[in-house]
Amino acid sequence: MAAAMRGVAFIRNIVGSLHLRLQILGGTSQQLSCLHTSISLDSKHWEKNNRKVYPPQLLDEPRRPAEVYHSRRQIKYSKDKLWYLAKMIRGMSIDEAIAQLEFNDKKGAKIMKEVLLEAQEMAVKNHNVEYKSNLYLAESFSGKGKYLKRIRYHGRGMFGIMDKVYCHYFVKLVEGLPPKPEQKTSFDQAKDYVQSLKNRTIIHSL
Amino acid sequence: MATSMMRTFGALRSVTCSSLKNAELALDVRHPGPLFLPVRTKKRYFIPPAVGLKGKKEENPEAMAQAAGIVFRQQYFERPINIACSAGVFDPYIPPEGDARLSALSKEGLKQRTEQIRQSAASQLAIRKIKEHDSEFSTKTFAEQAQEIFVEAHNALTHFNREMLHSLVTERCYPEMTRGNRYKTIRWRFVESLEPPRVVHARCPEMVTKGNLYGQVTVRMHSKQTIAIYDRFGRLMLGSEEQPKDVLEYLVIERHLINPYSRWRLHGKIVPSWAPPKDPVIKTVAIPGPELNPWEEYDALNYKVPKPASIQWNK
């Protein structure tokens, strides 16, 4: 009886400590979930960036370059396959990007070219961009769309769930010349390497 | 003894079960997932909905309801629409050539100055009709009122105060004033009035049914204003804030006379055919070139840009 009582008390202690740990875990999950409080599946945040209005610039400020955000949703293509094209045209000027996509054989290239032309027209008509060639791609990436699920029949009565894949494509055009990627000479790289070696500190030494 | 043992075993079982789960959870604290309780009948697989069956299309549900004997009352698909302003400017005022260009001291200038509204009989009739419905109307005070309405409306436009704008400006004029301006910043200032505003024209058109009177009065205003429009990114698109411009305008103010609660609101502007061209936008705009046949070439030297015909139009 006493052993049983002691056993119960022991178990209750364990349960209590575990409850504490559970609460901590639950608390951490709450803390981590604060990062994504307001994004849901249906929100189209990328297009809302086009509604941002800046206050009028003063005379001494440098002219702010125009930014145009555009996207196309639920393209019947894979996001991984579209990523390759998006990575290819990142940082190019818009004319160059359209030319590259026109002569690319992939299916996503045709869709991306349409999106770029739409975005260019929007920029000139609605966002007060002066020259339609004076744009470059600041950001271009693909995202996962909502998949449809179907059954794929295997042998022996087994089945798999087939995903009908859709993706989104997002693009941000900025007015101006495309920024040149910094090219470091080999001498500079060697110099940086030697400097990093010299910056090392040796701890616990005599 | 037995009950206590049962209790301990029960507690132990639940603790061991939860301890297993918690051990898993304790191991990967980085992924705090939902706590799942062992429930035997929980569905753990997912079968997507079968695509083949689209569902048989129902025949006319109306016919089925009639056959069943249910009678529906007659449904009227109507929605009342209130029209508070007329569609345009009826019988617009044609301002005389060179209205504000001639000085008051020359003979032509004097002739223009002595133009009274009494010359136009239709305007007199219209004013008499307006005075029937609105006893406080008088041509002398109305011009000042019109200018006030104009200034307040444009101030509401700069702050984009929708409610005030709707009360000062008719529904026909509102989209003309605000189209494309939502993501732009407008800075407008009324510097001073160069000449006192004058009522030059009045008409009382009727819409749809007889007796549905609207009163439209044209007021001539000569004033100094500054306007500066900035686009979405704060860059100047049009005008300048420091440089005021002399503006001669013919405003059309309208009121729905039948309605006792209606107000005099800005309805539109008349732009005469001899008006000077407006200032260009701070942007290079491409003018479409001539339409060429496939065998023709574009000749830049001999091509003249076609100028738009100068006609009077209502804004």
UniProtKB/TrEMBL annotation, chain A:
Q: What GO terms fall under cellular component here?
A: ribosome
- Coiled-coil intervals in this record? none
Which Pfam family is an annotated match for this chain, by its short name? Ribosomal_L22
InterPro entries per the UniProt record, alphabetical: Ribosomal_uL22 (IPR001063), Ribosomal_uL22_bac/org-type (IPR047867), Ribosomal_uL22_sf (IPR036394)
User: What superkingdom heads the lineage?
Assistant: Eukaryota
**Is Repeat found in the keyword set?**
no
> Which UniProt keyword terms apply here?
Ribonucleoprotein, Ribosomal protein
The UniProt similarity line reads: Belongs to the universal ribosomal protein uL22 family.
Annotated protein name in UniProt: Large ribosomal subunit protein uL22m
Gene that encodes it: MRPL22
From TrEMBL, chain B:
Q: What keywords appear on the UniProt entry?
A: Mitochondrion, Ribonucleoprotein, Ribosomal protein, Transit peptide
Domain called Tim44-like: residue spans: 123-271
The highest taxon in the source lineage is: Eukaryota
GO CC annotations on file: ribosome
Among InterPro entries, the record links this protein to: mtLSU_mL45, NTF2-like_dom_sf, Tim44-like_dom
Gene3D superfamilies documented for this protein? 3.10.450.240
Pfam families (alphabetical): Tim44
Q: Where in the cell is it found?
A: Mitochondrion
PANTHER family tied to this protein = 39S RIBOSOMAL PROTEIN L45, MITOCHONDRIAL, LARGE RIBOSOMAL SUBUNIT PROTEIN ML45
**Family assignment from sequence similarity:** Belongs to the mitochondrion-specific ribosomal protein mL45 family.
Functional note: Component of the mitochondrial large ribosomal subunit (mt-LSU). Within the mitochondrial ribosomes, required to direct the nascent polypeptide toward the tunnel exit and position the exit at a distance from the membrane surface.
**Name recorded for this polypeptide:** Large ribosomal subunit protein mL45
What organism is the protein native to?
Characodon lateralis
Q: Which gene encodes it?
A: MRPL45
